[in-house]
């Protein structure tokens, strides 16, 4: 297994855990944010870079939306349709958007949550991935030294 394969496997596990958390927490109305989770692994000049990326609204799943600018009514209307909330009108979308703009989302007002990604992307998870990479590197280095020594 290579470092890239370790990162890919670990990243896929992280993405799957976050998606499962979103589903079980009811934070997956359309599935769009869940499906936006992706990873890229690049190597440049011997340096490997790992990036976990998601929709720009991803952090709202745990933090909520703070008060300020009113969210677009069309986005709230789409959420209502995806949920689905029966007997909902465009007036409901307007009322929800206005309240979020004035007071922040209910999640924001209650202090947020930590059961979507904060409980997955932890210091322990990073340490585990780091340990796997360190073990791989140590084994590859020791194998190379032994091979070189045996060729003498």
What does this structure look like?
- The chain has 152 residues and is mainly α.
- It folds into two domains: 3-64 and 111-150, no CATH class; 66-104, no CATH class.
- The chain contains seven helices and two strands; from the N terminus they run ααββααααα.
- A two-stranded antiparallel sheet has the order 1-2.
- Strand 1 (38-44) and strand 2 form a beta hairpin.
Distance between the termini: 27 Å
Q: List SSEs in N-to-C order.
A: HHEEHHHHH
Q: How many domain regions? A: 2
> Count of helical segments?
7
How much is the average pLDDT? 92
Beta strands, count: 2
Briefly note the structural class of the backbone. Answer: mainly alpha
Lay out the secondary structure:
Elements: H1 3-24, H2 32-36, E1 38-44, E2 47-53, H3 60-63, H4 73-82, H5 90-103, H6 106-109, H7 123-150
Antiparallel strand pairs: 1-2
Helix pairs in contact: 1-7, 4-5
């Amino acid at each position: 297994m290579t470092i890239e394969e370790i990162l890919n496997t670990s990243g896929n596990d992280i993405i799957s855990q976050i998606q499962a958390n979103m589903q079980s927490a009811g934070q997956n109305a359309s599935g769009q944010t869940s499906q936006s989770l992706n990873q890229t692994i690049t190597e440049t000049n011997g340096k490997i870079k790992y990036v976990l990326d998601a929709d720009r609204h991803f952090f709202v799943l745990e933090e909520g939306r703070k008060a300020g600018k009113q969210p677009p009514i069309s986005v709230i209307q789409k959420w209502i349709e995806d949920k689905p909330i029966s007997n909902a009108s465009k007036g409901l979308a307007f009322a929800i958007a206005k309240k979020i703009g004035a007071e922040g989302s209910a999640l924001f007002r209650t202090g947020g949550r930590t059961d979507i990604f904060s409980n997955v992307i932890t210091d322990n998870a990073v340490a585990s991935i780091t340990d796997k990479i360190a073990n791989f590197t140590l084994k590859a280095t020791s194998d190379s030294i032994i091979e070189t020594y045996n060729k003498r």
